[in-house]
Amino acid sequence: MIHIPLLMIGTTELLVIGGAVLLLFGGKKIPELMRSLGSGVKEFKQGMNEVTNPDTDKQKEETKEEDSSKENQQPQQETATDDGKEG
User: Which residues fall within 8 angstroms of residue 30, CB to CB, at 6 or more apart?
Assistant: First the structure.
């Protein structure tokens, strides 16, 4: 039986992989790739949260609606400005 260690990557291997990525994509493309990867991970987490906790999303929507209705009902108070002049 063949045993393959998973994710046993050392510093040298990481440097070689990083160099290869830099050569393939260039310095300007790497930040764009990382942003898209980050947004994909964020969307994935949101999707997982929706599947595991569907009630929390409804609660968030209800609180947003309540906050917006309270803001519309309260009159805005005018604040007096002090320009430093007396008299």
Answer: 21, 22
Tokens of 26: 């260039």
Give, in degrees to the nearest 5, the angle at Cα 64 between 58 and 65: 90
- Please tell me whether residue 32 adopts helix, strand or coil conformation: helix
pTM, entire model: 0.43
Ranges 27-31, 59-63, 70-74, most confident: 27-31
Each domain of the chain, given as residue ranges in start order, spans 26-54
Cα dihedral 64, 69, 72, 77 sign: negative
Coil, strand or helix at 39: helix
Joined tokens for residue 66: 């309540």
Cα dihedral 19→20→23→28 (10° resolution)? -70
